[in-house]
Amino acid sequence: MTTLLRWFLLGFACGLGLLTGIVSSQDNLGASYIGFCHPRWPCDQSLKVFDGVPVKRLGFLAPPTFGRTCPCYRRFQHLPGPKYVRVHLANGTCFRERGRVCQPGEPFAGETVASADRKLRRRNPGLLRRYRHNALKLKAVLTPDPFTIERLALCLECPVSGPARRALLRVAREVFPDGVFVDSVLTQGCLKGLVCERHGSRPRLSPPCVADLDGRDAREVDVAGFARRTAGCEASFVWARPFNLLPPDPSTGFVSPRARTAAPTRADFDFLRALLAP
Prior knowledge:
Elements: H1 3-24, E1 29-32, H2 43-48, E2 56-61, H3 71-77, E3 83-88, H4 113-121, H5 125-141, E4 148-153, H6 162-175, E5 181-184, E6 195-199, E7 209-212, H7 223-229, E8 235-238, H8 266-276
Parallel strand pairs: 1-2, 1-8, 2-3, 3-4, 4-5, 5-6, 6-7, 7-8
Helix pairs in contact: 4-6, 5-6
């Protein structure tokens, strides 16, 4: 065995040990940067939040919802130390039933919840082709890293039925044959065998799970209580309105994610950094 190969195997084994510790860590708070791929995203400031954090946990929504590309992710990947990433493969919050509009290029563009559910259960080639296309583009971004755990959520707050989500899962597994998948739902039961994800300050979860404050601004809730209630999850993500590039006033009407301009400020990141600090 060559010296180079020995060093490679040693590094790989150490990486596996670190990753095993990641998913069992009690200090599981992370950053819910849903708008991470927006062109106006302040990458430098957002990554400084992770300085000194033993395990850097990041949650974000894949392109093209906020941006066509995601350059800040590569910079995150180069941060030192073990990392945990949960990425939503598609936006499940943009349906018109929620007073929103799915944008061109998103898998559910032009659909209602009912039409998307029906098409997925019937294996509609067009919808599944769009989903596969976006998943393949994301795969090119998620370059393999022995010190990063990746969790792939079928879609963000997916409102469609179990059979419809299984259709998404089949495509996701074709693109990511070795992937570990997350079922991010609203009120439905999670698919058996997947990591279950729910949002809000009091999500009802049991391991394996992912929690996310998404929809409840961390500055307005008991984050310590949220952390205690979700301590058994692989990650508990902290969210605030600026991380979706939303203005402070929640009464503001819907603005297409790509058209948003209210990027998070240094004060927003300082608040998060204080929560994540060891």
